[in-house]
Amino acid sequence: MNRSHNAIKAVVQRTGLSAHVIRIWEKRYGAVEPERTATNRRLYSEAHIERLTLLRQLTQAGQSIGVVAKLPTEALRNLASQGLDVAANHGGTTRSKGKPEPAQDSPQALLESCLDAVKALDASALEGALRRAELVLGGQGMLLRVAAPLAQSIGDFWRAGEITAAHEHFCSAILKTWLAQAARPFAAASAGPVIVVTTPAGQLHEMGALLVAALAANLGWSVLYLGANLPAAEIAGAAKQNHAQVVALSLVYPEDDTQLEGELTRLRKWLPLEVHIMIGGRASSAYSGICRKIGALQTESLIHTGEQLDALRRLQKTL
Question: Are residues 108 and 87 in the same domain?
């Protein structure tokens, strides 16, 4: 093969990045755009390899891939050679020019360790990576910078056929246990407003809901987590019984469920008017029409979900 057109295996060897991370950076951040063969195999140029190598250096030094992936290659070269701070030079918050974050403890490296453990179905390795991430980043940082991207990535790989449902269930089971333990010290069951977290009937993937439950607990909500695939009548009944202020739903897959509009319509009908419905997740944008129809709050990310929960808590205090 021509050296200017490298297969992903060669790119992995030359950049030090795993194939998992390369695909994530391509799909989510547009870091590079490889050519495709007639059989849909990726081909990377020397320019792509240089760019990925620079991005790896910068993220290992603690920079955010979401920021540096948007920069032109010349800017990446300058940052890598001069040790400049990305945030300070691009309108963000100035970061200390102290010792670079160790490669193994950067959020991206911790995420990669989690992904490798999931692919290997190695429970000890996954739990160890999660513990290390919590020590390095703290509970909230770990949730937003490792656990949430992990759930997103596992969904991407499952949809692309690169992992099986067994891998997704394996990751979900371990994350469920970890998130429950991580949220417990923050839970304010007696004082916080109540939020019911679940996925509606037909939505079988629960990792997004688990993340929302942990986030809400960290933010002082009393969380009633109901798992996945619950009919509208049961969601409404649980919310009424527990005097919930919010029902949070995660929509991940599928994006074309013809039954879901009816489920959401019934849920809104059976819930008291003062109970807010919050809807997020990868598939939520496909149901924007019904979300608007029932007056649901749509969230774009886990960070946005946290902002909405904070706003709703403030609203409750004024009532």
Answer: no
Domain that holds residue 94: 1-101
Nearest Cα to Cα of residue 195 among 219, 221, 176: 221
- Number of other residues whose CB lies within 10 A of the CB of residue 10: 14
Tally of domains in the chain: 3
| Residue whose structure tokens are 């759930």 | 151
**Quick one: 273 and 288 in the same domain?**
yes
Side-chain half-sphere exposure of 45, counting CA atoms within 13 A: 7
Confidence check: pLDDT of 86 > 90? no
Q: Does residue 251 contact residue 300 with C-beta atoms inside 8 Å?
A: no
pLDDT attached to residue 99: 42
How many CA atoms within 13 Å lie on the side-chain side of 189? 6
Q: Which domain-ending residue is among 75, 101, 127?
A: 101
Residue 265 has a pLDDT of 97
Evaluate if pTM is beyond 0.70: no
